Q: What sequence folds into this?
C-alpha cells in the first residue's frame, strides 16, 4: 500500500518535472516560474482525441466546471496552437487565431451552423456564454467528421460550440437558476428551463442578463513614470435569449429548431493614449438568428441532413469627438444572411464512406456611411469527401469547390471567384497492441476578402484576391494506462508548417491606408498536449494537463523590407498552459496557469515594439450540495492571482486580480 | 543603455552654445535669436521627429550627428523620463522653444530648444472643456498658432505659453502658415470624406479674425507662404482609384490679398526655403515620384527633375526640409509600419546619405548649427 502511494507520488512528481521543463522551455524567467510553479488541470484532451487524423482539442462540461471557466475565450486560451486576441475587460473584443493564420481563417460554429460576420470576417467570441454549453472543441485543418456543413470545410481551423441537449430521466422538467457576480460591478443572472413534451419532443429556454461597470484599475508605464490609472467607458449590458425545440419523428428523422437573440450596449474604452483619458465611443449590437436542423439516418448505409438559417445583425457605432463636424460620428450597419445546407452520407462498405455536401448562402450589407455600395454576396460551396476507417487506420480526402459572385449597387463590381480546395489526412495506429498513432494532414484553403476589406470607405479595395493558406501537419499521439494507478495518460505532439500567400493587409500609401494583397508568411510550429488523471485514493482524483506551443511565424514578403524574416506581430515564440485539479468530496480545487512569451506589436522585431511576456494564474473552488431532488452549487474564482499587469494587445491593459462567485440552483 | 545616456549627454553639452533653426519658419523674427545660421557656423546635426503609428504611443525624437554619422534615438524620453505621446505631427521652432503638436495625446508639448527639457504641455480645449487635437504649428510676432482638428486655430502667447484666443476656421484644418499679419489654414475636412472641405481660411493676425475663405481644390492639407505672403496650397484631392474620377494631389497658389487660385502642378509634399519651393509628387499606389523645384518669387519652374541620380525612394515622402546653410535637402520617408528613413540630397540633387530614423513615419527635421571655431578646439 505504501509502495503504491510512493509510486503515485513519483508519477505526480515526474509529471510536475515534465511540466516544469515545458514551462522553462518557454523562456519564462525561472524566478517567476518558481513563484508560480503549479501544475494543472483540464479535461480537454480526452484520450479519444488522439485518434483524430488532424489535431482536435476539446473541453466538455465537466472540464468547464472543474476549471471554473466562465467565458468562451477562457476555455479557448487553454488550447495549444491558439492565440486569443483580447482587448481586455468583459466587453473587449476577443478573437481566435489558429496557428498564426489570423482570426479570419477561424470558423466558429454554434450547434453545427457557422456563425459569420461578412463585414469584419471574424467572430467576437466574447458574446457567447458558457453556461449553456456542453462542449467546446477546436479542430485544426480538416476534421475527420465528413458529415457536416460545407462551411466547416472552408476554414483553416474550426471552433465548435455545442449547447447542452436536455436528457430526462425522472422529472419531465429541469430548471437551473444561477447568479454570477464579480469584480468591477459584474452581475450575471441566468435561467435555463427544460421541458419534456411527450415521448419524442423537448424544449429548452435559456436567458441571461449581464452588466458590468468594467472600470478596472491598471498601471501605466510611461518611460520612468508609473501611474495608477483606471479604464473608463468600459461598461457593458447584455441580454441573451435562446429557445431550442428538439423533436423526433421516429423513422422520419430528427429535428432541432433554435431561436437566438443577443442585444448589447457597451462603451469602448479604446487603447490607452498617453496624456489623453478621453473615451467617447459606444457600440450597440443586435443579433438574432433562427436555425433548423433536420437529420435522418435511414439505414446503415444512408444518412441525410439539412439545415436552414436566417441571421440578422445590426450594429451602431457612435463616436463622440469634437473632431467631427457636429461633434460626433454615428454609423449603423445592418447585415443579413440566408443560409442553407444539405449533406448526404453514404457508407457502401463497412470501412468506407462518402459524403456530398452543398451549401448556399447570401450575405448583404447596408450601412449609413457615404458611398456604401450595398453589396450582396452569393456563395456556393460543394464538398465531396471520402473516408476509409478501421480500428487501426483512418484516411480522409475531400475536395471543396467554391463559387462566389457579388453584386453592388454602386462602384466597382468585383470579379467572380472560383476555387478548388483539397484536403487529405491519415492516422495510423503503428502497433496493434499500443495506442500509438502517427497522423499526417494537408489542407489548402483560403479566405475571401471581407466586406470591410473590399468596400470600406477609401480603404477598401474591390480588386483583392482571396488570401490563401496551406497547412501541413505531422504528429504522434499516444494514450493509455502507463501504470495501474494511473487512470489515463494522453500525449500528443504535432509539428506543422503553414504558408499564407496573398495576405490581405492594410498598407499606408501616401496619407491614406489601403487594403492590399501584400504579404507572405511562413509559419513553423510545434504543439504538445499532455493530460493525465491519477486517483490518489478512492476519494481524491487529480487531473493534470499541460500544453506547449512553439511558433516561428515570419514575414517573407519582401527581401528589402526592414521586417523581412521577422516574427509577425502578436505571435509569441513560446506559449503554454498548465492546470491541476483536485476532485474530492469536500471542496474541489483547481489551479491554472497561462504563460505567453515576448511578442512584437508591430512588424519590425526591435525593442521599441516589444511586448513583454507574462504568466497569468487563476484558482477556482467549487462544492455541490444535494438535497432531495435538488442541487446547490457554489463556485468561486480568483482570476490573475498574481495581479500581473499585462497586455495581450498593446495599450489595451488586462484587468489585475479579480474575483467571481457563482451560485447555481439545479432542479 | 548607460552608454546611450552618456552619448546623449555629451552630445547635449556640445550643443549648449548652439542654435538651431528650421528653414520654413524664418518669419517675422521678433523673439527669435537666430533666424538664419551665421556663415561662421556649420551644420553639426539635426533632430528628427517620428510620428509613430497611431494608437501606439511611439512618437519620438532622434538626433543625428553629421560629424560621426551616428543616430541617437528617443532623446525626448531620455531627457524628460517620459514619452512624447501619440501621433506627434511635426515640430516647430520659434525662438528658443520648440512646439510639438501631439495629435492623439491632445497636447502641444513645448520644450526648450537647447536642452529638449519640457517647459509645458499645453492642453487645447474646446468651448465645452473637452480636449482638442492639435495638428500643426506656425508663428508670427509674439504668438505661436496651432490648428486644432475640431476646426479652430489657437493663439498661444510665447511667454506665458497659454492659449489666449481661438478662432473658428474650416473643417479639420491641417497645416497652416503665417507671414507678417496674415495666416492661412488648409481646411481639409478629412474626416468628412468624401465631402471634403475645400477652403483656405485667411486670418488677419491684427484682429485674429477670419477675413475670408479662399476656395481651392478639395481636401487641402498643406499651405506654405513665400516672403511676399503669397500662399501655396496642396490639396490631396479624392484619392480615387479610378483614373477617370481621380482628383490628384495638386499644388496651387494665390497671391496675398487675392482669391484667384492658379494651379501649378501635381504635388504631394512641398516645402519652401529662401523662396524656392521643393516638392514631391507621389500619388498613392505609385512606385515612382517626381521631385521638382519652383521659384516662388519669379513664379516659374526651376527643375522638373531635382533628383539627378537614380535614387529610388522606398516608401512615402512625409516631409521635405532644406538646410539653408548647405542647401542640402532632407526627405523624411515613411515605411510600411516599420522605421522610416531619411534621404539626404545635395543641392545638386544627388543622394548623399540615407539612414534609418529610429522611429516610424518621420515628419521632418530641425537643424543644429555650431560655431566653426569651437569645433577646432
A:
Amino acid at each position: 500500500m505504501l509502495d503504491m502511494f510512493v509510486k503515485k507520488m513519483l508519477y505526480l512528481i515526474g509529471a510536475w518535472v515534465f511540466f516544469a521543463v515545458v514551462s522553462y522551455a518557454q523562456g519564462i524567467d525561472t524566478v517567476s516560474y518558481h513563484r508560480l510553479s503549479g501544475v494543472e488541470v483540464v479535461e480537454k484532451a480526452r484520450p479519444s482525441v488522439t485518434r483524430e487524423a488532424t489535431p482536435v482539442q476539446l473541453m466538455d462540461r465537466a472540464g468547464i466546471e472543474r476549471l471554473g471557466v466562465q467565458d468562451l475565450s477562457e476555455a479557448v486560451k487553454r488550447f495549444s496552437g491558439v492565440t486569443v486576441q483580447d482587448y481586455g475587460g468583459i466587453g473587449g473584443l476577443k478573437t481566435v487565431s489558429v496557428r498564426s493564420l489570423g482570426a479570419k481563417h477561424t470558423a466558429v460554429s454554434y450547434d453545427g451552423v457557422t456563425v459569420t460576420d461578412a463585414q469584419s470576417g471574424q467572430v467576437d467570441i466574447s458574446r457567447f456564454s458558457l453556461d449553456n454549453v456542453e462542449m467546446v472543441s477546436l479542430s485544426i485543418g480538416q476534421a475527420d467528421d465528413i458529415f457536416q456543413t460545407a462551411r466547416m470545410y472552408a476554414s483553416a481551423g474550426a471552433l465548435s460550440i455545442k449547447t447542452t441537449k436536455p436528457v430526462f430521466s425522472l422529472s419531465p422538467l429541469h430548471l437551473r437558476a444561477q447568479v454570477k457576480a464579480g469584480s468591477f460591478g459584474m452581475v450575471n443572472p441566468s435561467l435555463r428551463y427544460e421541458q419534456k413534451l411527450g415521448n419524442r419532443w423537448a424544449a429548452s429556454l435559456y436567458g441571461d442578463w449581464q452588466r458590468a461597470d468594467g472600470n478596472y484599475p491598471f498601471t501605466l508605464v510611461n518611460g520612468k513614470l508609473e501611474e495608477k490609472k483606471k479604464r473608463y467607458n468600459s461598461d457593458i449590458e447584455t441580454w441573451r435569449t435562446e429557445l431550442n425545440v428538439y423533436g423526433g419523428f421516429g423513422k422520419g428523422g430528427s429535428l432541432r429548431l433554435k431561436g437566438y437573440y443577443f442585444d448589447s450596449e457597451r462603451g469602448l474604452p479604446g487603447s490607452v493614449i498617453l496624456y489623453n483619458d478621453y473615451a467617447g465611443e459606444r457600440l450597440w449590437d443586435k443579433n438574432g438568428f433562427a436555425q433548423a436542423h433536420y437529420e435522418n439516418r435511414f439505414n446503415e448505409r444512408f444518412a441525410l441532413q439539412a439545415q436552414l438559417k436566417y441571421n440578422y445583425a445590426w450594429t451602431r457605432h457612435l463616436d463622440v469627438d469634437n473632431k467631427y463636424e457636429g461633434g460626433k460620428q454615428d454609423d449603423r450597419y445592418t447585415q443579413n444572411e440566408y443560409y442553407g445546407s444539405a449533406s448526404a452520407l453514404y457508407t457502401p462498405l463497412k470501412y468506407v464512406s462518402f459524403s456530398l455536401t452543398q451549401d448556399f448562402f447570401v450575405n448583404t450589407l447596408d450601412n449609413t456611411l457615404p458611398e456604401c455600395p450595398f453589396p450582396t454576396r452569393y456563395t456556393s460551396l460543394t464538398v465531396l469527401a471520402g473516408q476509409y476507417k478501421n480500428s487501426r487506420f483512418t484516411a480522409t480526402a475531400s475536395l471543396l469547390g467554391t463559387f462566389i459572385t457579388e453584386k453592388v449597387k454602386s462602384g466597382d463590381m468585383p470579379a467572380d471567384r472560383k476555387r478548388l480546395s483539397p484536403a487529405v489526412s491519415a492516422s495510423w495506429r503503428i502497433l496493434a497492441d499500443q495506442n500509438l498513432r502517427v497522423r499526417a494532414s494537408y489542407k489548402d484553403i483560403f479566405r475571401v476578402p471581407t466586406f470591410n476589406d473590399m468596400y470600406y470607405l477609401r480603404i477598401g479595395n474591390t480588386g483583392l484576391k482571396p488570401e490563401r493558406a496551406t497547412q501541413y501537419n505531422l504528429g504522434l499521439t499516444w494514450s493509455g494506462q502507463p501504470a495501474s494507478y494511473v487512470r489515463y495518460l494522453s500525449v500528443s505532439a504535432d509539428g506543422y508548417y503553414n504558408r499564407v500567400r496573398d495576405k490581405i493587409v492594410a498598407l499606408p500609401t501616401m496619407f491614406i491606408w489601403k487594403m492590399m494583397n501584400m504579404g507572405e508568411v511562413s509559419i513553423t510550429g510545434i504543439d504538445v498536449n499532455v493530460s493525465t488523471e491519477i486517483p490518489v485514493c478512492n476519494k481524491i482524483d487529480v487531473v493534470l494537463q499541460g500544453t506547449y506551443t512553439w511558433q516561428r511565424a515570419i514575414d517573407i514578403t519582401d527581401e528589402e523590407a526592414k521586417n523581412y524574416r521577422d516574427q509577425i506581430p502578436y505571435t509569441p515564440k513560446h506559449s503554454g498552459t498548465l492546470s491541476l485539479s483536485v476532485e474530492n468530496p469536500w471542496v474541489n480545487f483547481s489551479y491554472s496557469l497561462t504563460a505567453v512569451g515576448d511578442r512584437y506589436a508591430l512588424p519590425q522585431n526591435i525593442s521599441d515594439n516589444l511586448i513583454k511576456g507574462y504568466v497569468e494564474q487563476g484558482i477556482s473552488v467549487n462544492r455541490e450540495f444535494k438535497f432531495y431532488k435538488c442541487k446547490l452549487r457554489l463556485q468561486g474564482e480568483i482570476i490573475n492571482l498574481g495581479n500581473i499587469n499585462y497586455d495581450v494587445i498593446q495599450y489595451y491593459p488586462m484587468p489585475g486580480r479579480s474575483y467571481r462567485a457563482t451560485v447555481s440552483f439545479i432542479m | 543603455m548607460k552608454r546611450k545616456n552618456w552619448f546623449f549627454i555629451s552630445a547635449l553639452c556640445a550643443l549648449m552654445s548652439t542654435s538651431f533653426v528650421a528653414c520654413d519658419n524664418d518669419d517675422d523674427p521678433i523673439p527669435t535669436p537666430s533666424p538664419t545660421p551665421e556663415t561662421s557656423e556649420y551644420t553639426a546635426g539635426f533632430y528628427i521627429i517620428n510620428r509613430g503609428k497611431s494608437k501606439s504611443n511611439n512618437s519620438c525624437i532622434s538626433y543625428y550627428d553629421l560629424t560621426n554619422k551616428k543616430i541617437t534615438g528617443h532623446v525626448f524620453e531620455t531627457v524628460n523620463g517620459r514619452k512624447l505621446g501619440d501621433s506627434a505631427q511635426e515640430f516647430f521652432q520659434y525662438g528658443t522653444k520648440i512646439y510639438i503638436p501631439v495629435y492623439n495625446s491632445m497636447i502641444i508639448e513645448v520644450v526648450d530648444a537647447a536642452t529638449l527639457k519640457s517647459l509645458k504641455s499645453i492642453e487645447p480645449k474646446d468651448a465645452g472643456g473637452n480636449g482638442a487635437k492639435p495638428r500643426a504649428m506656425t508663428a508670427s510676432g509674439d504668438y505661436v498658432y496651432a490648428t486644432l482638428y475640431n476646426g479652430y486655430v489657437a493663439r498661444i502667447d510665447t511667454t506665458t505659453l497659454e492659449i489666449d484666443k481661438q478662432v473658428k476656421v474650416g473643417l479639420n484644418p491641417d497645416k497652416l502658415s503665417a507671414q507678417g499679419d496674415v495666416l492661412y489654414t488648409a481646411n481639409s475636412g478629412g474626416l468628412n470624406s468624401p465631402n471634403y472641405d475645400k477652403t483656405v481660411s485667411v486670418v488677419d493676425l491684427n484682429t485674429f479674425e477670419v477675413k475670408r475663405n479662399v476656395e481651392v481644390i478639395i481636401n487641402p492639407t498643406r499651405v506654405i507662404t513665400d516672403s511676399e505672403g503669397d500662399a501655396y496650397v496642396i490639396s490631396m484631392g479624392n484619392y480615387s482609384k479610378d483614373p477617370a474620377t481621380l482628383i490628384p494631389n495638386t499644388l496651387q497658389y494665390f497671391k496675398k490679398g487675392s482669391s484667384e487660385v492658379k494651379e501649378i502642378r501635381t504635388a504631394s509634399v512641398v516645402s519652401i526655403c529662401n523662396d524656392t519651393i521643393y516638392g514631391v509628387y507621389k500619388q498613392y499606389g505609385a512606385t515612382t515620384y517626381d521631385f521638382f523645384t519652383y521659384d516662388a518669387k519669379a513664379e516659374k519652374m526651376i527643375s522638373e527633375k531635382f533628383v539627378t541620380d537614380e535614387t529610388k525612394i522606398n516608401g512615402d515622402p512625409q516631409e521635405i526640409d532644406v538646410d539653408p546653410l548647405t542647401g542640402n535637402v532632407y526627405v523624411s520617408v515613411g515605411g510600411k509600419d516599420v522605421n522610416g528613413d531619411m534621404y539626404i540630397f545635395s543641392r545638386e540633387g544627388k543622394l548623399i546619405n540615407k539612414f534609418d530614423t529610429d522611429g516610424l513615419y518621420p515628419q521632418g527635421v530641425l537643424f543644429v548649427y555650431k560655431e566653426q571655431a569651437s569645433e577646432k578646439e
Notes: The domain at 9-371 of chain B is CATH 2.130.10.10 (Methylamine Dehydrogenase; Chain H). Residues 2-15 of chain B form the longest helix (14 residues). Chain B touches chain A through 59 residues (CB under 8 Å). Chain B has three helices and 29 strands.
